What does this fold into?
Amino acid sequence: MVTVPALCEKPHDAVRCKRLTDRHGRRITDLRISITDRCSYKCVYCRTGNDGAVYAELPIAEYLRIARVFVALGIEKIRLTGGEPLLRRELPELLRELSALRTLDGEPLDLALTTNGHLLEEMAPRLRDAGLSRITVSMDAVDAEKFARITRVPGSYQRVLSGIRAAKRAGLDPVKVNCVLLRGFNEDQIVPFARFSREEDVIVRFIEFMPLEEDRLWTPESVVSLREITSALNGFRPLVSLAPNTASETAVRYTFDDGVGEIGIIAPVTQAFCGHCSRVRLTSDGKIRTCLFSQSDHDLYGVLERGGSDDDLAVFIRRTVEQKEARHHIGEPDFLKPSRSMVHIGG
Ligand code: SF4
It folds into this structure.
C-alpha cells in the first residue's frame, strides 16, 4: 500500500501529497490501461496485420496493483483498452476489483472501456454485473460491406450492431460509438451515422484520423476535419452545440435542432485539446506513455519485476508524469511518428 498522507489534514505536506500533476500544471486524473495488444480485427487505419511486433500482456493482478497505486496518487477515471480487451477472460474479475476502489475523495472510480464490439453481445451482462456502467464501441461504418472492408473481418457489422443493442439492453449507459473518419474510406458515413445515433439512441463520436497506424497511410489530406464533419451534419439537420461534460472532455458535443441524437467530434489534428490533457497510458506490457505521441516508454513494470514496493512504483509514476509532453506536433515539420502504433498503445 502506498504511504500517501491524508490530503485535508492541516498542515499537510504540499509536495508529498499533491495529486499527480505534470510540469505544465495539468492535473492527471485519467489513466488508460491496455490489457492486451491482441485484437480480433485488422482495421486499415490501425493495423497492417504484418508488422510482426508482439508485446507482452501482464497477469491481470499486476494491472490491478498498478491501478491501485495510480488511484492513491489522484487518478479518478480508468479506461480499459487494447487491442481488444474483451479477449482477456479475466476482464470481469478486473472490473469487479476496480469498481471496489475509491478515489482520494472517497468517490467510486469512473470506469470505462473501449471495445471493437465483436464479443459484446455475449459479454454485455457480465460486464454490467462486474461494475461497468458505460461502454465505448469502435465502429467505422453503418454499411456492412464497407465495415467489413475496414475491419478486414467478414460479418463484423452485424456482430457489432448486435453487441451495441445488447449493451443497451444490459443497462450500459451511455453507449458511445467511435468512428474514425478516413478520406477515401468512410467519409460518406457521416450522415448515416447521424441517423444511427437518433435511431439507436447512442452517442456517435467522429474522430479525426491520427498518424498512429502501423502502415504509412496517414497524410494531412487523409484527415476529414471537424469543419467538414459539421458541414455535412448541418446539411442533414441543423446542429445545436452542447456544453462539455468535463473540462478535459476531448469531444466537441452537439445535438440536432429537435434534440434527438448526440454527436461528438474529437479533432486532435485540426482542433488540438492538449492544453487541458489529463491522461496518461499504461501499455499492455506495463510501460507508461505520457502522451499518445511520445517518442519513449517508461518501464514501470520493470520496477515491479525488480521487487519494487508500492512506494517505489509511486515515486516512479510521479517522476514520469512530471515529464509529460506539452502537446503533439502533428503536421509540423519536426513531427515524428510515435515509437508505437495505436494497437500497441491502447486508445
Ligand atoms: S496528444 Fe498527448 S498531450 Fe495531446 S491530448 Fe493527446 S495525449 Fe494529451
